Amino acid sequence: MPNRPVFRRVAIVGLGLIGGSLALAIREHGLAGTVVGTDRRDDETLWARDHGVIDEMAFSAADAVKEADLVVVAVPVRATRDVLEAVRPALSDHAVLTDVGSTKGSFIQAVQAVFGEWPERVIPGHPIAGSEKSGIRAAHGDLFDRHKIILTPPDSVAPEALDQLTRLWEGCGARVLTMSVDRHDEVLAATSHLPHLIAFSLVDTLAGEDDNLDIFRYAAGGFRDFTRIAASDPIMWHDIFLSNREAVLNMIDHFTADLGQLRQAIESQDGERLLQVFSRARAAREHFSKMLSGQAYVNTEQQNQVTFRLQPGGAAQGDIRVPGDKSMSHRSIMLGALAEGTTEVTGFLEGEDSLATLQAFRDMGVTIEGPDQGFVRIHGVGLHGLQPPHGPLYLGNSGTAMRLFAGLLAGQRFDTELTGDASLSRRPMNRVADPLRQMGAVIETGEGGKPPLRLRGGQTLTGFHYDMPVASAQVKSCLLLAGLYANGDTSVAEPAPTRDHTERMLNGFGYPVTRDGNTARLSGGGRLTGGPIDVPSDISSAAFFLVAASVAPGADLRLQHVGINPTRTGVITILREMGADITLENEREIGGEPVADLRVRYAPLRGIRIPEDQVPLAIDEFPVLFIAAACAEGTTLLTGAEELRVKESDRIQVMADGLAAIGVDSTVTDDGIEIPGGQALRGGTVDSHGDHRVAMAFAVASLRAEGEITITDCANVATSFPGFDRLAQEVGIRLTVEACE
Ligand code: NAP
Question: What is the DSSP string of 593-635?
Fold first, then answer.
């Protein structure tokens, strides 16, 4: 749809690919009253007029710009100064002058040489769009659509001129960014000019080889992709390199030094070094688009609608292993990076916390291989071996990672900045920043204690005792990690039990943490030692199968290698109290954490009043415990679980609605629910509201249902419990998954 004209008369000098495309875009979108164009070659100007690229033609730059309120210089950068000299006498006072050149320092030099200053209406520009083709015949009106255009206005820019030019480019479909001239030239030297130089140079080197035909004949697709840009216009590129000389030379020196190090590593068979560079580069390649667009590491916005369909009368039989524990996977990366030696992790679960942490350590120079099908190898650098990152550490959506890193980085010798996606950036960090400051950390937060967190390096931290006002495993872990770098003892007392994975795993890595009642304590200045970690299965995932086998008549199921950390086993305690038959076999310790195989056999369950002290220890398991309650004889009463009402969904209400949908009445209270057992589970359609635990809980309910259960909005299950559908089918739950666009 045509826009309102932004300029009355636009003059374009240089009708090639970029000038011609801009003329077409302006005309197609109705952004100017008239577009007048001129080129060094009259036949090109005529062609442009005859083919509707411009409205009017002029046969000199001076003629073209007369009475124009926007002048666009779209010639090769080395021709800019001549064009400016030619147009200056004819330029009207109110005209905005811009260009499209690929280097900006050279344009400003030409402007200052011709005008004696940098006028407030001269706004350099550079569209990040183009192709290897040049000339008017390659021009097209949608070249800039959804591309970026960088403007580098002077400090004294006339605001209305900047606004008009911005609207013109936006009208052409582009996104406008502004930056300084120097920054532009540095960024482009790194991201565009150096890669072009390498491509030109590589193809030239190979072309000079004796058997070059063979080399090119056998070159695979990757080579063609990599060298595509060597087909670009040599004259334009010769201009660019000479015009952006300083910034390009810096980049070449930087790159040559790094290439030299790789050469050295190959010569001296330093595989470790090669691995470090390659894995860091691969990770950066995979993650940079995510980081740039501010997304979470794990994409929870699934494209597909997923529905679970369950037939009644399945079974729960067999011997299975559910995915690894998220908290332990996360800590294995964190402690493995700080340990001396190599840590090999198996059973690793790729959650948001783990992936964000993995990337942050890579940014601080730690070599990490994987994750590859649950395997990660971390080449630890020791407590004092982290390198300063080149920029902010981007932690996606992981609040846990941000709080733990705040502690870990407060005592480093270098500065760091921690950032996250939009939702993490709204979460307050004062709960960790305040006590860290008491230890001597220097931390700046954004407004209201929100991210970004800026931590000043080189501070001396002093151990202290902290009484947590609110029980929080994240705050406790943060302070203990800071305590690794502090003088003396750091101790944290918790008002109620919280998860203790950090303490246990520190012990597992050989760093002593003691517990005295409700207080965890460590002394600074020790060391961690890497080793193998077979991450135990997540008890929260195992819980679905514990309930499945408890309610399915005749069931006998073994769950291998499950983490039974006492701060997480509320589900076992509650189910046993309801009469479940769960035995722990082969108890052992992995990385400081207790682990066992769990054998579960069917047993009739009875309703109970759930002990309130067990509620925090089973908070994630309640959706499936409600199914156990529905299958029990007698009433089950849950109180003291307000937290469940503010989870991914109002879990209690969503579960009550789901139960009602399959024929089970319950009563929701402010802090819990009352579920009378012994009612028939008739079947029906349950909306999980995208809550993965609700979806899986109702899949388990099918074992006692009389009719089919359909569960909608189940896409998130794949993120929290990869392979749930396959394992459910394996044990005999009659589940089919339907996905549609
Ligand atoms: P192009 O297709 O070769 O167009 C440049 C046009 O300017 C040619 O028609 C050229 O004529 C004409 N010209 C040269 N000197 C002139 C003068 N003194 N007066 C009037 N016209 C003159 O090049 P382009 O790709 O459009 O590039 C133009 C500018 O955009 C360059 O500064 C380049 O750095 C920048 N840029 C290019 C790309 C890209 O991918 N191509 C992307 C972003 C920015 P002749 O053909 O007779 O020389």
Answer: EEEEEEEEE----B--BPPGGGTGGGGGGHHHHHHHHHHSBSE
